[in-house]
Automatic annotation (TrEMBL):
HAMAP family: DnaA_bact
An example Gene Ontology CC term for this record: plasma membrane
GO MF annotation terms: ATP binding; DNA replication origin binding; lipid binding
SUPFAM superfamilies xrefs: P-loop containing nucleoside triphosphate hydrolases, TrpR-like
Biological source species: Corallococcus aberystwythensis
Name of this chain's protein: Chromosomal replication initiator protein DnaA
Compartments reported by the entry: Cytoplasm
Annotated domain remarks: Domain I is involved in oligomerization and binding regulators, domain II is flexibile and of varying length in different bacteria, domain III forms the AAA+ region, while domain IV binds dsDNA.
Family annotation (InterPro entries): AAA+_ATPase, Chromosome_initiator_DnaA, Chromosome_initiator_DnaA-like, Chromosome_initiator_DnaA_CS, DnaA_C, DnaA_dom, DnaA_N_dom, DnaA_N_sf
Positions bound to ATP: 160, 162-164
Residues in Chromosomal replication initiator DnaA C-terminal domain copies: 360-428
Length: 452
């Protein structure tokens, strides 16, 4: 076997070859050309135990490089791949590497993250759940084999649901794994502005080079703004055709399906629908809780479960608002040092939580009866059937929690005495802590009732 063959990379890290190419590029960009005369004679072998193993022609070479360049190399390596703080050497038996190896790669390596890509938007920070499973899986498939899977990928859905996040995650992933890939990310408005400017300044050749020749991955956000802009659409159409014909990856996002975008040409509509169209739906209750917990973890905020459930109950439509609520809570917590409880959350988030609907005991009885498929009258009777008794206790608990009525008042509405109400409330409080299905039912009921 060729002594220089690369072994498989450590999962989650780019290959030794990619890491080495990026390291050399970073050193080159710093103008340290004297070092490159030596460094370029080494060959990336593999990543082993947090070290990048480099092939050297002999021991003399190894010792000299080690004395002069180890610390520079390790500094650059750690900057590029924080888990890789070390280099190791392996003497390659046989003719010197420079004699039998292809010359160092001449492909341009983009050691800078492509313009406008936010490093925060990655697959690692994206919570995958029922509401976004298909677009998330498709985006990952594109990121793993750009241009081969689902081309074009068209992600659509309402505002603040994570379309931009996914789109940027595709770009970040591709760049991190292979910095030679030329990734162009922008919104359709920015595409339009660049186009208009290029026409005005007679720079269309540059514009076309950027979008057709020097682009391996085209990521366009909010494509719906292209509707009604005839000239830009025409230019975009030819850009699309060129890239598509070359198997270059194209990912688009929009807040509507192609057929609904006003003013969009039919030929573009049909091309958008050629690959895969995947929608992101509003997050379910469970997804909202999961997103809050993951984001709290990322922020270093200790978010107790009841508080996550409290926010998820009140902020229902939009992940952006969910995030906003958490950021505010976190900021107020670190300023005031008050413990993060439901009460604290309700004070801090007062202005962003939807206005409270006033609920009364009758509304609670109706909602609980509907939920457990019993009649309101049955809730007030004396029957002790187990399911009925549970529904009754839940209704009493919610009456106490949501209306703040006194125990005797609640008791009179259920034709019971007040000690029965007290024990029902205590029982349901206990079950809420210990029984996840009761917890879920109560959260759902509270959401329906719009209460605290
Ligand atoms: N599933 C998710 N997991 C983690 N964060 C998410 C998720 N969905 C959305 N977000 C976060 O919510 C915020 C809004 O998401 P994003 O900007 O991607 O929405 P969008 O769908 O592009 O909205 P718009 O159509 O208004 O541009 C971002 O900070 C994003 O990180």
């Amino acid at each position: 076997m060729n002594a220089l063959a690369h072994s498989a990379p450590t999962p989650s890290l780019p290959s030794a070859g990619v890491i080495w190419t990026r390291t050399l590029e970073a050193i080159r960009q710093e103008g340290l050309h004297y070092a490159l005369t030596w460094l370029e004679r080494m060959r990336p072998m593999e990543v082993r135990e947090n070290a990048l193993v480099l092939g050297v022609p002999d021991r003399f070479f190894r010792d000299w490089v080690d004395d002069h360049y180890r610390s520079m190399l390790e500094t650059h390596l750690a900057r590029l791949e924080p888990t890789l703080g070390r280099v190791a050497y392996e003497v390659i038996v046989g003719p010197p590497p420079s004699a039998d190896l292809p010359p160092p790669p001449t492909v341009k390596v983009n050691s800078m993250r492509p313009a406008r890509l936010n490093p925060r938007f990655t697959f690692d920070t994206y919570v995958v759940a029922d509401s976004n499973q298909l677009p998330a899986a498709a985006a990952q498939a594109v990121a793993h084999r750009p241009g081969h899977n689902y081309n074009p990928l068209y992600i659509y859905g309402g505002t603040g649901l994570g379309k931009t996040h996914l789109l940027q995650a595709v770009g970040n992933h591709i760049w991190e794994k292979d910095p030679t890939q030329r990734i162009v990310y922008l919104s359709s408005e920015q595409f339009t502005n660049e186009y208009v400017e290029s026409v005005r300044e007679h720079r269309m050749t540059d514009f076309r080079r950027k979008f057709r020749e020097e682009c391996d991955v085209l990521l366009i956000d909010d494509i719906q703004f292209l509707g009604k802009r005839e000239e830009t659409q025409k230019e975009f159409f030819y850009t699309f055709e060129t890239l598509f014909g070359l198997n270059k990856a194209i990912v688009l996002t929009s807040d509507m399906v192609p057929a609904e975008v006003p003013g969009m040409e039919d030929r573009l509509r049909s091309r958008f629908a050629m690959g895969l169209m995947a929608d992101i739906r509003e997050p379910t209750y469970e997804t909202r809780v999961a997103i809050l917990q993951k984001k709290a973890e990322q922020e270093g905020l200790d978010l107790p479960d009841p508080v996550a459930h409290f926010i998820a109950r009140h902020v229902q439509k939009n992940v952006r608002e969910l995030e906003g609520a958490l950021v505010k809570l976190s900021a107020m917590h670190s300023l005031t040092k008050q413990p993060v409880t439901e009460e604290f959350a309700s004070q801090v988030l007062r202005d962003i939580l939807p206005a409270q609907r006033t609920v009364d005991i009758e509304a609670i009885q109706r909602e609980v009866a509907r939920f457990y498929k019993v009649t309101v009258d049955a809730l007030k009777e004396d029957r002790r059937h187990k399911a009925l008794a549970h529904a009754r206790q839940v209704a009493m608990y919610l009456s106490r929690k949501l209306t703040k009525s006194s125990f005797p008042e609640i008791a009179s509405r259920f034709n019971k005495d007040h000690s029965t109400v007290i024990s029902a409330v205590r029982k349901v409080e206990g079950l809420r802590e210990t029984d996840t299905s009761v917890h879920r039912d109560l959260s759902e009921l509270e959401t329906k009732l719009g209460g605290m």
